[in-house]
Amino acid sequence: MQTVKENTWAKRESHSPGSEDQKKSGLDSIRIVGGKCLKGTITISGATTAALPLMCASLLVDEPLQLTNMPVTLGDIRTLTDVLNELGVTSALRADGVAILHARQIKSTTAPYDMVRKMRASVLVLGPLVARCGRAVVSLPGGCAIGTRPIDLHLAGLKAMGAEIVLKDGYVEASAPDGLKGAKIDFPIVSVGATENLMMAACLAKGETVLSNAACEPEIVDLGECLIAMGAKIEGLGTPVIRIAGGGGLKGATHAVIPDRIETGTYMIAVALAGGTVRLKNARLEHLTALIGPLESAGLQIERKDADVVVSRNGRPLKGADIMTKPYPGFPTDLQAQFMTMLTLSEGAGMVTETVFENRFMHVPELCRMGANITVHQGSAIVRGVPRLKGAEVMATDLRASVALILAGLVAEGETTVNRIYHLDRGYEDIVGKLRGCGAQIERLPAED
Ligand code: UD1
Questions:
Q1: Å from CA of 212 to ligand 1 middle
Q2: Active-site residue identified among 56, 133, 144, 203
Q3: Whose alpha carbon is nearest atom 25 of ligand 1?
């Protein structure tokens, strides 16, 4: 099996996530002149939300884990690579989307605040580290723009598996000197991250772990399939009850990351808004069943063609539709902001109810500045369609809100400038290139000194 001797990532790229270059490019803007319809082909990248837990799975074995179809240019992938390097994992991330992560030896069991605060998904090192090393010290991630986002379910699960958990100076100190034990864990609410953390930890625990009310997201299935390729025994993936027979004995493996369903959905909504026909290559429609109905009733045509999806809207006005975000297979919270943008220009009204995160309507005031008519009451928003949006200078505070404003810019009259695109660089590969390739008038402007 191939070994990785050094961190070639640092060599390939002159800047790392925390570097001045990247911080500066995060302050760049995107300028869009609205009104062009979209025609062409967009290749969907590997899913960042699948890639991050998969990268953490590399901590479970002393052999290399090779991941293909990785969105290697994304900020979040770079940030997690830095965290893993800090723990002793050697990494090679190649421009062709292959990542090789080798945790031959864990040199540190501490994930420091400075790294974890940049990206919550870093807490996914906690389960694998304590399972493999009997100890982990991970900074508490803190709240974020879309809500308080605690990690109590991750911690309760590890406790049930025999870990001692101490919270000290903003850090979680988890220890299980004699190793973790399999446990029955019934989640009070569905959590993608807690399911991932505990599923990984359970692979190295002694005995069987049963996760009930587990998340069913395609990203969970993808992680489970990779763990199985590494030698884990897991049943029930994609259902609310997952059984993991622990005991270790894992080895290195090669695994292809699933296509990004949120990126796919975002471009489907882009076509609904802007009109035209776009072929989405490497898209998995079966992961988007909750989006297809509302998009079709709004007026989008969706067709599967071989391994691709072709979406088109020609002429007819969009119609309002109601959605409520829910854990998978419900409507994804990560597509809520984009769908709301579409409703702003639909005939009639639509209601958007957010049940997953408590503070995920930050795009609303910015959309209203562009002329949208939206009324928010607690977790619901009524969107009354308006004939047109007007371009404006806007700024967003999270990834999906930022992309919702790009979508609004594609159809707004005149020019829209989305400032501080740091969030977009975290989760959307080459969004400017992909949209421009389909005829959008969009460009990235460097930050002024
Ligand atoms: C993941 C995704 C994120 C997506 C979210 C929901 C990644 C990197 N991120 O985030 O893009 O929006 O799933 O589909 O994959 N909760 C608790 N206690 C916990 C954990 C979660 O109360 O210990 C709550 C959260 O505050 C939230 C809900 O559970 O209200 C769902 O969160 P969760 O599924 O854990 O989201 P993430 O895994 O953080």
A1: 16
A2: 144
A3: 149
Q: Ligand 1 in contact with 166 (CB < 6 A)?
A: no
Atom of ligand 1 nearest to the CA of 399: 11
Q: Is 203 a catalytic residue?
A: no
Which range in 246-250, 318-322, 432-436 is most confidently predicted, on average pLDDT? 432-436
> For residue 49, which atom of ligand 1 is closest to its CA?
15
Residue spans of the domains in the chain: they are: 21-44+259-445, 48-256
* pLDDT at res. 26: 73
What CATH architecture does domain 48-256 belong to?
Alpha-beta prism (3.65)
Q: Give CA separation, 243 vs 183, 224, 240, 411, in Å.
A: 10, 11, 10, 47
Angle 82-1-77 from CA coordinates, rounded to 5° = 20
Does ligand 1 come within 6 angstroms of the Cβ of 143?
Answer: no
Contacts 24+ apart (CB under 8 A), 301-309: 302/268, 305/279, 307/281, 307/282, 308/279, 308/280, 308/281, 308/282, 308/283, 309/264, 309/268, 309/279, 309/280, 309/283, 309/285
Q: Residue 205: what pLDDT?
A: 98
Residue 447 pLDDT class (50, 70, 90 cuts): confident
Say whether pLDDT at 144 is over 90.
no
From the list 381, 321, 319, the residue with the least C-alpha distance to 354 is: 381
Strand 373-377 versus strand 349-353 pairing type: unpaired
Is residue 151 lining ligand 1, measured as CB closer than 6 Å? yes
Segments in 318-421 forming alpha helices (H): 336-344, 363-369, 399-411
Q: What is the pLDDT of residue 27?
A: 83
pLDDT, mean over the chain: 92
Per CATH, 21-44+259-445 and 48-256 having the same topology is answered yes
Homologous superfamily, domain 21-44+259-445: Enolpyruvate transferase domain (3.65.10.10)
> d(Cα 115, Cα 117) in Å, to the nearest integer?
6
Is 357 touching ligand 1 by the criterion CB < 6 Å?
yes
Which residue has a Cα nearest atom 5 of ligand 1? 192
Q: What's the pTM?
A: 0.94
Q: How far is CA 437 from CA 45, 232, 311, in A?
A: 15, 42, 16
Q: Which residues, at least 6 apart from 370, have a Cβ–Cβ distance to it below 8 Å?
A: 389, 390, 391, 392, 394, 408, 412, 416
Q: Would you say the CB of residue 326 lies under 6 angstroms from ligand 1?
A: no
